[in-house]
Amino acid sequence: MDHHGVTLEGLYQARRRLAGETVRTPLIRSAALSARFDAEILLKLETHQPTGAFKLRGATNMIAALIERHGREALAAGVVTASTGNHGRAVAYAASRLGLPAVICLSRLVPPDKVAAIEALGAEVRRVGASQDEAFEEVERLVRERGMTLIPPFDDPLVAAGQGTVGLELMEDAPDLDRVIVGLSGGGLLGGIGAAIKAIRPACLVTGVSLSQGAAMWASLQAGRPVAVGEVESLGDSLGGGIGADNRCTLALVREVMDDHLQVSERAIASAMVALLEHEKVLVEGAAAVGLAALEAHALEHPTLDVRGQRVALILSGNAVSLATLDRARALAGR
Ligand SMILES: *Cc1c(COP(=O)(O)O)cnc(C)c1O
């Protein structure tokens, strides 16, 4: 089966490349959540990755695959991307592990602590312009003029296959899984996991969760083509951003593998973040709490998401959250 370039063989190759570079993360059962939702609730702890998020899988797979295919010399100019968040850290870390130079382009508005965090992972940070778009123009220039290789955050079969190794691990650790609930932005994570699951256990449902505002994938799926939406500040900031006007992989992939799609409010995200910390002792960022937020908002009274009796995995995708943001979440959740 070929899901827009993501094949089962590609997923197993990704898994081989990731061995020793990324963590095979634990899947733990939550007794409290299982009782609360009358289901078997399992938590996939991508927060255990060395960079704190699953994005290390996709970046590592793509860089390692390019080295395999073209040789190290062909990539000597290094890899480049523009991301302040989990993807920037992932590319910096993966490149340094695999012995290639990396440049991360950031706008001048990015706060110094985020710049320092990426530099600490061994990448060169290049600060240009006053927006993410201008930072991306610098990426394109480095690709054109210096022969660097772009590592995109989601829209590539190698990146999606890397993220999809989460799905392979789920199928091994919970072979009778009924549903996986995944945060959805550009669709590399959901698309990759979905490709793995639909190849191995098609009966397992794939539920995507988007922000209620600023969700480009939601609007694009409805329009049937990539749609740009305004960015909105959110506790789930890792789910913000567009899907790319020339999206070639993940929009079609998500449409094919996703069974249902929900949105969650800021308050629901806040409440889920606090609950995961308080009861499960897991610190997650907002984007990683949307699965529990969706259960709390849609699976209790008059459920539109009925998980009763099901075995359900929630992907706790990352932990990039500051104490200030955690305070904001607590204030919004009222706890
Ligand atoms: C990037 C990211 C997501 C969404 O992944 P996509 O592949 O863009 O859909 C979810 N959670 C976290 C923590 C992320 O960094």
What does this entry look like structurally?
With 335 residues, the chain is of the alpha/beta class. The chain has two domains: 2-53 and 156-333, Rossmann fold (3-Layer(aba) Sandwich); 55-150, Rossmann fold (3-Layer(aba) Sandwich), CATH 3.40.50.1100. 45% of the residues lie in helices and 15% in strands. It contains 13 helices and twelve strands. The strands form three sheets. The chain has a six-stranded mixed beta sheet with strand order 3-4-12-9-10-11. Strands 7-6-5-8 form a four-stranded parallel beta sheet. Strands 1-2 form a two-stranded antiparallel ribbon. Strand 5, helix 4 (86-98) and strand 6 (102-106) form a beta-alpha-beta unit. The mean pLDDT is 95. Pyridoxal-5'-phosphate binds at residues 53, 55, 85-86, 154, 183-190, 238-239, 285, 287-288, 317-318. The site of pyridoxal-5'-phosphate (PLP) has 20 residues, from helix 8.
Report the biggest beta sheet as strand number plus sense, adding barrel if it closes: 6 strands, mixed
How many domains, in number, for the residues?
A: 2
Low-confidence regions: none
Number of helices, counting only DSSP H or I runs of 4 residues or more: 13
Provide the gyration radius in Å: 19 Å
Question: Portion of residues in helices?
Answer: 40-55%
> Helix-strand pattern, N to C?
EEHEHEHEHEHEHEHEHEHHEHHEH
Family: Belongs to the serine/threonine dehydratase family.
Keywords: Lyase, Pyridoxal phosphate
Protein name: Hydroxyectoine utilization dehydratase EutB
Cofactor: pyridoxal 5'-phosphate
